[in-house]
């Protein structure tokens, strides 16, 4: 029997829960992810995680919602609309640090708790030819910021500060803190 409901169809989030031994049922949710006027990136990512965790109706077990976004120069990194847009984002990140924010929220029995995870990623210098060849792999098209840390783009990453799992889309340290607070463990007790 599953321990939680994962309010996400993300294979990466499912993979991360599998990694730490948490069992789950998947329920995909559809929420409005529009940025509100004057909403900070930190507030946005936490609000979206909370809304995802609350979007599962009549849940009889804890519901986990998560959201991740990237920032460079205070601009949110979105999914690229085309090759030129991808090149613009990758060029901005080339040789520079950018930030990845991940929030995880757990809703259960009328209570919701959220934690924010903040990370920094340094890209090496990337040539325009590399950006074009990378685009042709198909990987960046559906990725915010045009990359996924666990994919081909790992070759661009010179250094990270923070949580690999948070950059990937589900900060496991914070997730386990919230689950442990509810008495949910991934480790069996010895008796």
TrEMBL record:
Coiled coil: none
Gene3D superfamilies: 3.90.950.10
GO cellular component, one term: cytoplasm
Keywords linked to the UniProt accession: Cytoplasm, Hydrolase, Nucleotide metabolism
Co-factor requirement: a divalent metal cation
Main subcellular location of this protein, as a coarse class: cytoplasm
Keyword Hydrolase: yes
Protein's cellular compartments: Cytoplasm
CDD domains assigned to the protein according to its UniProt record, in alphabetical order: Maf
Site (Important for substrate specificity): 12, 68, 150
Reaction it catalyzes: dTTP + H2O = dTMP + diphosphate + H(+); UTP + H2O = UMP + diphosphate + H(+)
Protein family according to the UniProt entry: Belongs to the Maf family. YhdE subfamily.
Function summary: Nucleoside triphosphate pyrophosphatase that hydrolyzes dTTP and UTP. May have a dual role in cell division arrest and in preventing the incorporation of modified nucleotides into cellular nucleic acids.
The protein's name in its UniProt record: dTTP/UTP pyrophosphatase
The species this protein was found in: Cocleimonas flava
